[in-house]
Amino acid sequence: MQTNIQTELQEISGKFAFSLNIWTSSVVKAYIEIIVHFINKDWQLQQKNFRFVKIEGSYTDKILANEPIKINEIMIDNTNNNNILIYYLELWAIGKDISFSTNNYFHCFVYVINLSVQAALKQLKNKIDKV
């Protein structure tokens, strides 16, 4: 399946975007899912699981290593690990003579809204507790 997706990505003329899901299980095992979003040669929007792996140790500098990719943008949450990921991705791109700007990523809007709501609820709870 991985080979089919890579072949399909090589056949498209446009760029594609990645979204990442990173989480830790209840037994402290870390996992990452890399989802690729693109428009195929038939002009159909595609969203496919590009990679799903268990992460051993530090993962930020190895996620996209040695992948022949054309990155348009990356959507991430605002954890520090993702900021480090962008830094290492930029170094990787420079080493491969690939044009990459750290401006090509943005934080997931839904995640930012969730953080805002959580902060507001916390303040509201503090005020209610005082009553």
Q: What's the gist of this structure?
A:
This protein has 131 residues and is α/β, with parallel strands linked by helices.
How is this structure best described in words?
With 131 residues, this protein is α/β, with parallel strands linked by helices. The chain has one domain (2-130). 37% of the residues lie in helices and 30% in strands. The protein has helices at residues 2-11, 80-95, 109-130; strands at residues 16-24, 30-39, 45-55, 71-76, 105-107. It has a five-stranded mixed β-sheet. The longest helix has 22 residues, at 109-130. The protein is elongated, with a radius of gyration of 18 Å. The N and C termini lie far apart (58 Å). The relative contact order is 0.14.
